[in-house]
Specification:
CATH topology: Rossmann fold
Structural class: alpha/beta
CATH architecture: 3-Layer(aba) Sandwich
Number of strands: 12
Distance between the termini: 28 Å
Low-confidence stretches: 1-40
Strand order of the largest sheet: 2-3-5-4-6-9-10-11-12
Length: 352
């Protein structure tokens, strides 16, 4: 199997990327039974839903990938902590930017993580900048999603950022622990998480992987369904090499904004097919696509969106504490009845 981490491999795997179903960027039923929820734990009083003890500062930088000629803009949510903090990288969705999911970056940093929200040229906000009208904007987004080079570039952006974290922490230019790194992403960013976790592709009859073993865990917000060209018979190959603990988060109205035929429940397919590491699934009743990326829509009351986002941030905090910092209490929370009890009745929890 070839591990593609540089742009020189891009042309060879364009066919594989076409199978990803890029228009799902804007996933059968789970196998486990939800644990019983204790009555005294709610989303409001769960410790992980509360801000942590560390102060947070936000800074912007541009990291230069000279080998690929790419300028990667990053927003760093820095915790005021003496010891080098563990790192969570965040990959935005199609047409997004470093400003995506601020609710997650702030919460993780307050708990002692360095959250690095990165921007992917070619599939960021520049795609639709200056355009007016739904048709023009969605046309530009579909065009960007249909260009397989943008997926390849995204997937290769992550190893570059991991390399930079290692290099900068060694030189003390960045206060970070390069031995404890994880990845999160929304929509197209969730594609990116799965690719780096080991999702496999086929091109010219050969298996292709972007897996990076430096990552310890991942959070996939609005996980992508498999391409329509991928049948159930292909699932074992497509997802079988993923051995990373993952937290999958979606909603019953989390449909594909660029393909109305791609139903919201399809986003649960990756969860059901990954078997080599612990998997967690949260399905929010009534939650749409935008809420997980940090947006505040008009379909609900103004306080509904931040309430859902706070629950997502709390779950992600506990998850990363458990699998990146090996926090015993967080692991017990994730695997015990408290995890189910910490959320509203309209959030379905599954684990396997």
């Amino acid at each position: 199997m070839k591990h593609c981490t540089v742009v020189t491999h891009a042309k060879k795997i364009l066919t594989a990327v076409l199978l990803i179903g890029l228009v799902a960027c804007t996933t059968p039923s789970p196998t486990s039974t939800p644990a019983a929820a204790p009555s005294d734990i709610t989303a409001e009083n769960s410790i992980y839903a509360q801000p942590g003890v560390f102060g947070v500062t936000e800074t912007y930088e541009v990291w230069h990938d000279e080998d690929r000629g790419r300028q990667i803009r990053v927003k760093l949510y820095k915790p005021a902590i003496d010891t080098p903090p563990p790192v969570v990288i965040f990959s935005h969705g199609l047409g997004g930017s470093v400003e995506a999911a601020p609710y997650l970056g702030k919460q993780l940093a307050s708990w002692g993580f360095l959250a690095i929200h990165m921007q992917h040229p070619g599939s960021d906000g520049d795609v639709w900048a200056g355009l007016k009208g739904r048709r023009a904007i969605f046309g530009a987004l579909k065009s960007a999603a249909g260009n397989p080079n943008n997926a390849v570039d995204r997937y290769n952006d992550i190893p570059f950022v991991l390399d930079e974290i290692e290099r900068r922490s060694t030189s003390e230019a960045l206060h970070a622990d390069p031995n404890r790194m994880a990845l999160a992403g929304h929509s197209f960013g969730a594609h990116t998480v799965l690719a780096l976790a080991g999702r496999q592709y086929i091109t010219a009859g050969e298996a292709v992987s972007f897996k990076d073993d430096r990552l310890l865990a991942g959070v996939v917000l609005s996980p992508p369904s498999p391409s329509k060209r991928i049948t159930q018979a292909d699932y074992a190959f497509t997802y079988g090499a993923i051995d990373l603990p993952l937290l999958h988060v979606t909603g019953t109205e989390d449909a594909n904004p660029l393909d109305a035929s791609d139903a919201a429940e399809n986003r649960q397919i990756p969860f059901s097919q990954i078997t080599k590491a612990k998997q967690y699934l949260m399905v929010f009743e009534g939650a749409d696509h935008a809420v997980f990326g940090g947006a505040a829509g008009r379909r609900r009351s103004p306080d509904w969106y931040p309430k859902v986002q706070a629950q997502v941030a709390g779950a992600a905090t506990a998850f990363f504490l458990a699998y990146v910092t090996q926090d015993t209490e967080a692991q017990i929370f994730m695997d015990g009845p408290s995890f189910s009890g910490a959320f509203e009745a309209d959030v379905a929890i599954e684990r396997h």
